[in-house]
Design goal:
With 163 residues, this protein is α+β, with helices and mostly antiparallel strands. It has one domain. It contains four helices and six strands. Helix 1 crosses helix 2. It is globular, with a radius of gyration of 16 Å.
Length: 163
């Protein structure tokens, strides 16, 4: 008896809270650096997406990292190992963002909850992540309209801005 293939449950990503995105946007020197927080955050995330997208499979999602709103930039395809990512993509993201991407794994077979291990100054823990959209699907749409509306409506209240 044959079994169906395992469903993809993990992928590589960079995770940014809204504060991190705003901090990077302000220091970027790009035209949107002085926009209001919510716009600067979104523009910086879009800037990263547009820089990396020509180099390989990249998607952008609204996310909550430990209950803080932010964004996830996913790289490659489900179940890719780090060495499966296009070398030019991996090289550029590491150069620009200063670190390797993180492996993000779905908590259960269904739902939008994920975890990602973290190690910092000798301490280890797992970040809890909710992602709007399905980053583990090969054919997902980049920040599709349903995901975007849900993320903006959830985020607007925490950003002090109306959607």
């Amino acid at each position: 008896m044959s079994h169906p293939p395992a469903k993809p449950r993990s992928f590589w990503a960079y995770l940014f809270t809204k504060e991190e995105l705003i901090w990077h946007a302000r220091r970027s020197g790009l035209p949107f650096a002085n926009d209001e927080d919510f716009l600067a955050m979104l523009q910086y995330a879009l800037h990263l997406y547009h820089r990396f997208e020509p180099l390989g499979p990249v998607r952008l999602y609204g996310a909550f990292i430990n209950d803080e709103p932010g964004m996830a930039i996913t790289l490659g395809y489900p179940h890719d190992e780090l060495n499966d990512l296009p070398p030019a993509l991996l090289s550029d993201v590491v150069h620009v963002l200063g670190e390797q991407p993180r492996r993000v794994t779905r908590v259960k077979l269904r739902g939008s909850r994920y975890t990602s291990p973290v190690e910092h100054e000798g301490r280890k823990w797992k970040d809890k992540i909710n992602i709007y959209g399905k980053p583990e699907k090969r054919n997902c749409l980049w920040l599709d309209s349903v995901s975007a509306r849900a993320f903006v409506s959830h985020t607007a209240g925490t950003m002090g801005t109306t959607a």
